[in-house]
Sequence to fold (732 residues):
Amino acid sequence: MELTGAEIAIRCLQEEGVEYIFGYPGGAVLHIYDALFEQDKVKHILVRHEQAAVHAADGYARSSEKVGVALVTSGPGLTNAVTGIATAYMDSIPLVIISGQVPTYAIGEDAFQEVDAVGITRPCVKHNYLVKDVKDIATTIKKAFYLAKSGRPGPVLVDIPKDISNNKTEFDYPSSVSIRSYNPVGKGEIEQVKRAAKLLLEAKRPMVYSGGGVVLSGAASQLTELVRMLGFPCTNTLMGLGGYPATDKQFLGMPGMHGTYEACMAMQHCDVLIAIGARFDDRVVGNVEHFAQVPRKIIHIDIDPSSIAKRVKVDVPVVGDLKLVLEQLLVEFRNIKRKPNAKDLAAWWKQIDEWRVKGGGLRYKNSTEIIKPQFVIEKLYEITGGDAFVTSDVGQHQMWAAQYYKFNKPRRWINSGGLGTMGFGLPAAMGVQLINPGATVACVTGEGSIQMNIQELSTCKQFHLPIKLLSLNNRYLGMVRQWQEFFHGNRYSESYMDALPDFVKLAESYGHIGIRIDKPSDVEPAIKEAFSRKDDLVFMDFQTDPTENVFPMVPGGKGLSEVILSEDL
Amino acid sequence: MRHIISLLMENEAGALSRVAGLFSARGYNIESLVVAPTEDPTLSRMTIVTSGSDAVIEQINKQLNKLIDVAAVMDLSEGEHLERELMLVKVSALGQDREELKLMTDIFRGRIIDVSDKTYIIELTGTGHKLDSFLQAIDHGLILETVRTGASGIGRGGRILKL
Ligand SMILES: Cc1ncc(C[n+]2csc(CCOP(=O)(O)OP(=O)(O)O)c2C)c(N)n1
Ligand SMILES: [Mg+2]
Fold:
């Protein structure tokens, strides 16, 4: 039987086992919405802005190992989605975005709601397609899913012109596809693995630096086993939090701009650094020239060769899927049966412990007068037993959440690391809650960020998503204010958030519960109350100290050992 | 350093802009870029002349390989290879200049492929360096137009770029 392109597209999603898609209708996708209407396997979540559709699909993917799917119309639908696509691209999140396009015969004529979707998204997708024949829809969607999740994952866009979605052909979903010009790697080269193992055993001051790749590849248990077997110190980047349990004594905290003193110092002063699915981002190693001043050997394991030796020189590159490479390394260590030199390692741990003391741990001066934002996160951690999914927006609140919530499991910490997209937190939480029904989902946000996608409170109402929002309301674009305080002579240019809405009333008007919390003593009861309401979305508006800054801090362009500690402690 | 990179890619709409976009987005130099289909019409072969530090060239090779449409990449400058570029030059050819230009063309092993009462079109193939030398050797004032294809390259002997 012949099906329309639109019906085929939906059948493809069914074949891929897609349970939810996030989208927003419009002229160019009306046939596809028609096909959606005729079935109930693929459930559609109607967002209130296309950016949120992509972020929701993204949160869905990050928290579940699945491919997230978004559906948007042509023109403004697609351009609204671009921020979401770029966000996913920077963090290597597997998404398939289906966009409508004007009919093929109108392409290039500046038709109503026409944009060059393939052109606009080219630099921020893993790959994209414009489908020009209904016969190509099924294979193109199959390829899109394959590309999105294999190798280094990423978003793939499929642009379908309106006439193509209405033309008919036989439906035949290929059971597999291969793309001759695309061959993602599996295991690492064994010689390289052996060299890495040897170097690690010779190290006097070893350091394990793991990133988002560990989470994406599902390699957290292999990483944990390796680090414990070797007895080495380990740090997780902002994207890698949860890859190694944060409460473990071998964990040094996060490195980088707002990392712990000990993680920064150990990164700087180690003699062998093994980078695992991390990319020496400028927010992690700071100034690369400063970083290179200390001689150290670097082993870099990554699935993407272009991530290796991009910013720093690498001595032992290993290209492969982290999970498989770490398994190879584990086998190698079991075979050689040698242990790292215990004396050297003990001396190194002694040094690290001294740094731990000098850094003083993550700390802040609590107050009985005014709510300290860090205190809110500590309470959130306690009350949720460290087991919530935590999404965040971008700013100071994001850093405090990353610092003070101890993630022991991967895929629990969901944030926009690479692009730093304000407005990510709430829609991402929607995706997380849908794929993890019954789970505790918290969104840590700021009064600035939340207003970038606050309309999604309406989506949450419609689809009964009992997310708990914790807004650390400092009345400032706090991270901007902090930089202005430190580097721009206290000139707070446009960083004060004037004319804020009454967030409690706003939440209520969307049909949710709002709580305003002014006093430190009310923090704990409010969070308890909110999380006890299993079926409700609760918006907690914490009036926090507007002057609080994030510490430690490695200022932009500085080296890791130039980290500034909290000045008033 | 100057590098000449050859690649095979799917002969699909948009493949060229993926390569060109990569170079501009990441701030890499393009001195020239030549592309045309191969004996297999589903594949195009591209030759790119670029320059940069060793680290930049390494990244360029890796980033090109990462493009889904790119099937194979070879940095020709890493081994023995040949380069050729085609140039067409239209010159003003009057009186004494006609003889002079004919002579130069012969010396450079070029050909005059079009003759009018006032002009010649000279065809010349060779390395970019040879083409530059020719332009320097003739009277600059006589040049009316030059068209150059940019370099194409191929590995020597057993160095073969094929799927
Ligand atoms: C879409 C977007 N625009 C601008 C920025 C720059 N920026 C980074 S943090 C920040 C302030 C965020 O303010 P808020 O959400 O209140 O968080 P706070 O830092 O106060 O905790 C801004 C404007 C950004 N990251 N994303
Ligand atoms: Mg704020």
